[in-house]
Amino acid sequence: SILQHTTFYTSVNRLHDLPSHAGIEVAFAGRSNAGKSSAINTLTNRGRLAFVSKSPGRTQLINFFQLGDDRFLVDLPGYGYAKVPFAIRRHWQDLLSTYLQTRKTLFGLVLIMDVRHPLKPLDIQMLDWFAPTGKSVHILLTKADKLSRQQANNTLREVRAYLLNSYPQCSVQLFSSLSAKGIDETMIVLNNWFGI
Ligand code: GDP
């Protein structure tokens, strides 16, 4: 898979530093601690490409990873960490909302949620910023290993039912970085988005 040849490209903190290229981007977003770094590392087969977060919410960077010439995986800053000062939250809002609403090269959004706490207000906020673009969203309900199969499937059904009404361009699946559950399903979506 092309994701196994992912290399670090650049980090940016301000919108006007975003790289200008004609490639395809797929962005990953999620609440702090939801398991985004672990998911990226699992999918790219790297131990620590996206460093597993040490101080949640502190680093407000957009990290770009390159997969081949013109395809990029974009690691968006985690959100929802309670102790972040107002000014940083504000910066996060501007960065994320503008990126999601205006980024031409952005093809789709992978939204990471802890299967035990899905669809929190800031997750909905992300969907509300991005859905008007009409682009694809794929939700990973991660840490599925923390629930019984039945509990996990119940949550999957509930989330799917909720999305059907409000966000029809949004798909969802169970995932676990620990057990590798759901990787094949995610890879099909990513390969499709990247045009592979
Ligand atoms: P991020 O802040 O969203 O990047 O989250 P991390 O990837 O740093 O993960 C937060 C915590 O959840 C860490 O302690 C991870 O080891 C743990 N974690 C992440 N994914 C999984 C998973 O699929 N299963 C389990 N059991 N723990 C996970």
UniProtKB/TrEMBL annotation:
GO CC term, one of those recorded: cytosol
InterPro entries for this protein: G_ENGB_dom, GTP-bd, GTP-bd_ribosome_bio_YsxC, P-loop_NTPase
Cofactors demanded by this protein: Mg(2+)
GO molecular function, one term: metal ion binding
Domain EngB-type G: 22-196
Domain of life: Bacteria
Record flagged with keyword Metal-binding: yes
Gene Ontology BP terms: division septum assembly
Record keywords, A-Z: Cell cycle, Cell division, GTP-binding, Magnesium, Metal-binding, Nucleotide-binding, Septation
Pfam families documented for this protein: MMR_HSR1
Function: Necessary for normal cell division and for the maintenance of normal septation.
Family note: Belongs to the TRAFAC class TrmE-Era-EngA-EngB-Septin-like GTPase superfamily. EngB GTPase family.
Protein name: Probable GTP-binding protein EngB
Organism name: Nitrosomonas cryotolerans ATCC 49181
Species classification: Bacteria, Pseudomonadati, Pseudomonadota, Betaproteobacteria, Nitrosomonadales
Gene: engB
